Every structure is written in C-alpha cells, then in structure tokens.
Batch of 3 targets.
Target 1
Amino acid sequence: MKAKDKITIICPIKRFANEWADSIRKQVPEFEVQIYPDDSDRESVEFVMAFDPQPGAFAHFPNLKVVASMGAGVRAILTEPGLPENVTVTKIVQPMHQRDMADFVLALTLSHLRKLPVFFKQQQEKVWKHHSFQRPEETTAGIMGIGAIGRVIGELFVKNGFKVTGWSRTEKKIAGIQTFYGNDQRNEFLSTAQVLVCILPLTDETTGILNKEVFAHLPKGAYLINVARGGHLVEKDLLESLESGQLSGAALDVFSEEPLPAGHPFWAHEKIFITPHNAGNTHPEAAFKKVLQNYYALKNGGEFVDVVDRKRGY
Ligand code: NDP
C-alpha cells in the first residue's frame, strides 16, 4: 500500500501554524497535516514546514529530508542545532509577498517624507501648522540587500520617482537602479542613502550590520527602515544616532526579541515608528504551490526550487 502523503508543521506561533494547516488541508485534502508537538508517527515524516522552530524539534524526526521554511527568512531554521547536515532547506519566494513588502516600505517612506507622524501629533493637540516636505525626486533610497524582495522594493521606488541605489554581495544589473556590491563598495552605497532600507538576510556577516559605523556613512539626517530581522540592528547605536541627529528617525518592523518587551525604550521613542513584524504576510494559498512542487520533487525525484544555500546562510 502507498504511504499517505504527509506534512508536519513546526511553528510555535499557533495562529500562523493553524493558518497554514487549514490552507494545506483545503488545497490537498488527501494529505495528512499535523502540527508539532501534537503530532504522531514521526518516523514516517520526511517533509516538514517550519518557522522559528521550537528548540530541538528537528531531532525528533529521524527520517527528515526537507525543511520548507514558511517565510523568506531561514536563520532560525539554519541555526537550530538539531538540523541534520544533509537536509534540504527551502524558502518562500512569492511575488504577492514581495509586493506586500514593497508597498509597506513605500508607505513608510512617503509617511516620513510627508511628515504624517507630525500631522498625527498636531491633530491630537488641535494644532494647525504647515510644514515643508521632501519629494521623491529629491530623495535617494538605498536598498541594503537588493535580492528577491529588495529588487521589488527598488523597482516600486523607481516607479514612484525616487532615485534608487542597491547593495548586494555579488554584482547586479537592474534597470533604473544604481547598484553596488561587496564590502569594498558598501560605504559608497551608504554615502547617498537618505532613506536606508534593510532587507538583508540575517547571517553571520550581516548580524549587527545596522550599527554606528554604518550610520556615520549615511548623509546626515538619514531615515532608517528595517524590515529584515531584529538581529541586524545594534539597538544602542540606533538610540545614539537618533540622539545626535545623524539619523532623523527609524521605522522598525522586526526586533531581536519579538514581541517587543513592554518596557523597551523603543516603544516610547518619538523618532521610532514600530510595527509588529507585519511588513508582509506570506499568503499560504499562493505560497503552497511551490512547497507542493518541492514535496513531489522529494517523492518522485526532481529538482527542488527556492533552495537555501546552507553554507551562505540564505
Ligand atoms: P534574497 O536571498 O533574495 O536576497 C538577499 C539579498 O541580500 C541578496 O541580494 C544578497 O546578495 C544580499 N546579501 C546577503 N548577504 C550579504 C552581504 N553580506 N553583503 C551584501 N549583500 C548581502 O532574500 P529575500 O529578498 O527573499 O529576503 C531577504 C530577507 O528579508 C529575509 O532573509 C528575511 O529575513 C527578511 N524578510 C522580512 C519580512 C518581514 O515581514 N519583515 C518578510 C520577508 C522577508 P546576492 O544577491 O549577491 O547573494
């Protein structure tokens, strides 16, 4: 008898795990879908989906072959000590998700340039006061990590009249975007970025990259947007750079500790805009198609798509 098709979800965020499980059951009703740790028969599991996995979870699956990340970020999966070396890791690369991220970053940028937070405060205080503003054509947005998502952000900015630059590890050519690559060209990239958008993957090389030294290379009064991972940011360096005026403000969607603890100084900082890791939501219905493609590639032998380079870390 043919073994039943089976996917196990490893994700401690219940809402997210259930949303994915419901979507998979709807799309492939013949599949058995289980959520760790309330699952059974772990010896039969070869394919799991994961996001911020519980410590030690992978070690319970002796026949694990593929871990499909439920998001674009894979750091928490790759750094999990129980992840066997021969396991293939894949990630979500999905146009709707990329567009959601780009819309959000554009909204944050326009809100900053058009001073919406200032007007919001004025309304609360019933103040009627005009302010000058900076136009997209007068603004250079620097995309730190011009990969799958960064490119879509950059292209949307170009459409909206911004001057756009991008930085990556290897050389890129993208119409309308001035690109830089590698550590040698990093400071030149930073030198014009009035709005710096971080959308790098979190790796050993990029951990703590949003630090005082990097901020010092930006034009005075630059605005920081971090929609990548909290581990990129050195928090005390941000506070110092906001205090000195080197940075005029920051929009942060991701944090070293999530949810951001109640007593954290960022909450009450008037130059910091906080969102709860909400820049883009993966859309299980659309994203599952490629996950399923990888599931069948495992079962029937075939090429995996959106594979993570485990050595490189993304
Ligand atoms: P990609 O792998 O497609 O792009 C990553 C980019 O970063 C590439 O251009 C890569 O360069 C560049 N890069 C990596 N390391 C370095 C380095 N050391 N120096 C310079 N450039 C570097 O990833 P995605 O665009 O799909 O996603 C990026 C990250 O965004 C994810 O890892 C995730 O953490 C975060 N994210 C956050 C979300 C949120 O809700 N806030 C949602 C989705 C993603 P090269 O092309 O040369 O390899």
Target 2
Amino acid sequence: MKLLVLNGPNLNMLGIREPALYGSRSYADLVRFIEETAKDAGVEVEVFQSNHEGMLVDRIQSAMGVFDGLVVNAAAYTHTSVAIHDALKAVGLPVVEVHLTDPETREPFRHVSYVKPAALATFAGYGFDSYARAIRFLSEALSSK
Ligand code: DQA
C-alpha cells in the first residue's frame, strides 16, 4: 500500500511560522514523523510540499495508478482552491484531509474547505498527530476493501 502525503503553502515554514499556533518543530521534523508513522503502519509513503497550486494539482493527477490513497493538507488552498477540489475528484483516489490546527475554530475565512467534500474524513487540530490519525485511518480503510 502506497500513500502520498501532500502539503501546501507555507508548511515548509513550520518551526518559524507562528509557533504559538503551529509549534516549534520544523517541516523536516514533520516529514520524519510521517515516514516513521507510515513505517509503523506498514505502508509506503511519499511526502510532497509545494507553495504553488498548479504543482499540487499536477502531483494529484500524477498520483493516479501509482498511489492507493492521498493525505492532503492543502494549507491556505484548502479555503480557496476549486482546482485542487476538482483534481481530487478527477483522480477518484481515497483522500483524507488533515490540518495541524482546527480551521473551524479559527477565523471565519478558514471555515470553508474545498478539500472536505472530496475527502472520506478530516483530522484537524491534533498537530503532527493529525497526519498519524489520517495514515492509520487510510491504511485500515484500504486494507478492509
Ligand atoms: C493549516 C490551516 C490553514 O487554515 C492554514 O492556511 C495553513 C495550515 C493547518 O494545518 O492547520 O497554512 O492547513
């Protein structure tokens, strides 16, 4: 089983950006955490980050036939990107939405998610553990298929 974890804009700034919200651990720490979680769950994982909407769309399209599921933190594009929504729907792979914080308890402009309607589940507000919950959820959902 092979999962693709997609991270959107500014997540590469983890550890520097708003540490009171996002914590003091870096993006490299997050990647390591995801790789360790996947190893423990017995799944293969690839992690991709981009600040560019089109790059994320390209990565989603090229996941077709290569990956069994997607874990998506589209970051700010969560709240704006019909293109990412359409790409997720187009490839038809199982998607789980994740966020470090819980956008629904933050500013009103974060309350809309264009990823959610394309996702089987959302894990938000658990910091790095949101990714662990998503990976375990997807691996269980895929192995019971
Ligand atoms: C985020 C929440 C988004 O609202 C924000 O734009 C981000 C990060 C999170 O993981 O908590 O960049 O997706």
Target 3
Amino acid sequence: MNMMSPAPAEREIAPGKVWLVGAGPGDPDLLTLRAARLLMAAKVIVHDGLVDARILAMAPAAARLISVAKRRNRHSMPQDEINALLVAEALAGRDVVRLKGGDPFVFGRGGEELDACRAAGVDCEVVPGISAALGAAAAARLPLTHRDSASVVSFVAGQCKGLTEQDWRGLAGPGRTLVIYMGLANAEAIAAKLIDEGLAPETAVAVIENASRPEMRVVRCALVGLGETVAGQNLRGPAVIVVGAVAARDGRDFELRALALEGVS
Ligand code: SAH
C-alpha cells in the first residue's frame, strides 16, 4: 500500500476556503458589502480582539466564533497557531471567515496567513477593509493628502523590532503626512526619533483613538509634547498618530457648518 495516499475518508472531504476579511476600524457601517455578506453567512469565524463587538453580533447565532485576540505583550494565540488553526479548519472541510481589524494586509499579518494557506493547498481569498488610518482620518475630518499641505502619505508601525534603527527620514515633514499605527506605548520615543531625524519639534500631531466608535477621541499637540499628551490624556488606544500639517486642521469647523446647513433646510 502506498503510504502517501490519503485514507479514503480523508480523500472525500473537499477542503474549505479561508476568507481573510477586513472588518474596518469599528463602525459596522464601514464593512464592505462583501465582508458583511460573508460574515452573515459564516459558520466558522476566527477573529482578532480589535474586531468590534457590534460586527461580531452580525454573525449567525449558530456560527462558531473563535477569538485569537492579541494585545501588546500578551499574545493569547501565537501567529503560527493561528495559521495552523485556519488550515486545520479548512482541511476539515469548513469555510473560515478570518476577520481582522481594518485591512488584512496593513499591519494585519494577513500575508503570513495567506502564505500558510497556500503552503497547505488551501484556497484563500482576501477581502479588503478600511484601514485605521483611513477610517480615523475620515472620522476626524483630517484629509491625509491635501493640495495645500500634503502630497505624500506613509503608514508605519510604531511598535516593531528595532524601532530606533528604522529609518523614517523623508516620511514626515513639509508636504508629508505620517500615520503611525501601534504607536501609543512608544509615543515619547517616536517623537524623539522623529525630532532626531530632523523634524521640527512644533510639527502638528493628532492622535485619533477609537476611530469610528462611539468613544472616539481626537487629541492634538505638538510633536515635542506627544509623550506627555499621551500619558496626560490617558490615551490607551487603539489609536493612530497623525504627524504633519494636516493634523492641525480643525475638523470641528466642518461639524459646525453641517449643523448650520441642517438648520437652513
Ligand atoms: N489591520 C489593521 C491594523 C492592525 S494593527 C488596519 O488596517 O487598521 C493595530 C493598530 O491599528 C492599533 O494599534 C491602532 O494603531 C490601529 N487601529 C485599529 N483600529 C483603530 C481605531 N478604531 N482607531 C484608531 N486606531 C486603530
């Protein structure tokens, strides 16, 4: 008998498919239609801690929800175990909706999960989501690019191996917007690094916490005061830090104007 051929029972199971689905920044209205459709038809959902409870509540009552929540310094499930879980579920014949905050391919380790599926011969499809930078910018009414103030926008991870060795020069400064994900814990070091790399200490910064959620906060400061502001305002995240002239724009002007228009109609 050829030991390489699978047992008949195994051979009969058609593998399921893994969907890497972006859940956006929080507000369920910011899901794509494709994400909502998949979620509402899902049998197995593997989700991160960042996925909003209101979104999880859209899953069918019978769906199996598996949390692989990760918090800084507290990994409840290591990435290789998440990869193995997705592959095992699919090989057992089940379709899996892998729900991730924001977009799966922006600091979401979606690439690693895609690779694991590929290596195991499991079909994997990616559904993009609204990444935190975009959701936060919209919610706070801070255009990431603007003809008057920025024509370049960069996303960086503020919590990663060798932060200080990373070269961020050219990512921030006049005409540029820098959006830092996962930066709160290192806020002070990040500000010092940017100033060290040549950025003016008075460069405008906006910290947008819990974007698109009811508890959203937008806090502004100068780059030099970032560490103090994060501590003083008790910013705990999730939050993005926006560095550059666009961060100085005051979104409240727009709110007031919208209210005035409502009064007219
Ligand atoms: N894949 C996600 C990012 C995951 S990394 C995306 O595309 O958005 C986690 C970081 O995303 C957090 O530390 C924070 O910087 C940012 N983030 C996620 N949700 C957010 C929200 N609602 N408001 C502000 N920042 C958020």
